[in-house]
């Protein structure tokens, strides 16, 4: 089925403009508006189609990580309480909810499930799965790193690991040295400090120094546009430092988003994170 999808429909993958390709990253595994977050079906589809797709990783009460975004189970799953307090058996008994809060048949994936999925599916050469780590380094134990390495080492070239804590990325990546990594320097008050100081050169230098091996830098799209309004091209500055840029997140493919997305495309961002890649592409080309 996935192979036939790859030949029939490649919408929602990238935009080519003025000789530059910008990938439309499937935020939380969303290809269309209204998709259920973090389903194996969408991840497999993205990898077969050559898309860029993102999922989140959080700790649970066991070794490794769960493929979830929130600290609590209540909104996205049929469970309740904090994810960190849920055991493996408890998580495996739960199901994901759709955007309207209704239970679905989709199970919560743990890091070993994700590794097994990636090992068993076809992958177009351009496909990449971003593993966005929601934990800071002090929360990550040696057994979590070991579980991550066991699951991801066989598929290291299919993923990129990112986080707002460069130390957390470094620790995990040392266990899977062939895995590409990225860094999001927009956390822990960094945006507010930059807007006050307007030291854009310092921001770029600090980001590069914080994660010297990062290939991709993830920037809030409003920060990219704030810098442009101030006369500074953050995208070009990071490109000169040898980094690609992901601008996040365009939540809805609505006409009001068009001016923002067109500015990002004109700045030649390498990737735009969106919850509706197919809808956004149709809006841009319509």
Automatic annotation (TrEMBL):
GO biological process per UniProt: lipid metabolic process
Gene source species: Rhizobium metallidurans
MF terms in GO: phosphoric diester hydrolase activity
InterPro entries (UniProt xref): GP_PDE_dom, PLC-like_Pdiesterase_TIM-brl
Residues covered by the GP-PDE domain: 39-277
UniProt name for this protein: Glycerophosphoryl diester phosphodiesterase
